[in-house]
Design goal:
Number of helices: 4
Structural class: mainly alpha
Largest sheet: 2 strands, antiparallel
Length: about 80
């Protein structure tokens, strides 16, 4: 599992990868836009449970948070959409 600071750094990357505005993400997470702004600015003053709420909204939208390994630092991936035949 990645650290809290790693998660904070990846959240903006995740939002941009999903092509969501800060307002869109805030609505999906049930928080204010200013909260998303504060998280993306480093998370100072934002409670852990609120960060988890925003992370959950990103994951529900299709983001997978990838932990650091010996070869690379933390990152994100987008879940593939199920292809129907």
């Amino acid at each position: 599992m990645e650290s809290f600071s790693d998660t904070i750094r990846m959240m903006r990357v995740a939002r941009v990868a999903l092509e969501l505005s800060q307002e869109d993400l805030a609505k999906r997470a049930g928080v204010g836009r200013q909260t998303v702004i504060r998280i993306e600015a480093g998370g100072k003053g934002v409670a852990f449970d609120v960060v988890d709420k925003v992370r959950g909204a990103l994951e529900k939208a299709g983001v997978v948070f990838l932990p650091s390994t010996a070869e690379h630092g933390p990152g994100i991936a987008l879940r593939r959409k199920k292809i129907e035949n």
